[in-house]
């Protein structure tokens, strides 16, 4: 893995990272926003402590553990990745409430256009902020975008110590089973 200096990471601030999307996906995973490592590499969930890729594999969404640089392979499994807010920051708390709301509006438009069967937002706090649903919990939501159902997953960041990789994988697997049945 490439090592970046602090200056190189800071230079990635505010960079945009292209979505990994296609029409009619089974599940479109949605992060909060790109971190600086993701922006520096151009690969989603690239920070070494982020558990997205291991949990995706443990939950059965992928047949092997993918590296962030292999993110385009997700499309062959009917999966994709986007973000609530496109702008890269060092921490999610650098985003404003308005950025979350505008990100939610743009995400709803994107989902309506791409028509995935499921939108999976990784991070209940981000989902609450983007869609003004302060009581949302991890799991399936009542909200839909056209025909797209919504599921909120735990945030795979290494900072989210409340969830282990194993308990996260169980929740991701619940979504996988629902997606396979829809």
From TrEMBL:
GO terms for molecular function: hydrolase activity, acting on glycosyl bonds. Residues 18-179 form the Uracil-DNA glycosylase-like domain. It comes from the Bacteria. The keyword Protease does not apply. Keywords: DNA damage, DNA repair, Glycosidase, Hydrolase. InterPro entries: MUG/TDG, Uracil-DNA_glycosylase-like, Uracil-DNA_glycosylase-like_sf. Its EC number is 3.2.2.28. It holds the Pfam family UDG. It is an enzyme of class 3 (hydrolase). The keyword DNA damage applies. SMART domains: UDG, UreE_C. PANTHER family: G/T AND G/U MISMATCH-SPECIFIC DNA GLYCOSYLASE, G_T MISMATCH-SPECIFIC THYMINE DNA GLYCOSYLASE. This is G/U mismatch-specific DNA glycosylase. It comes from Streptomyces cylindrosporus. The lineage of its organism: Bacteria, Bacillati, Actinomycetota, Actinomycetes, Kitasatosporales.
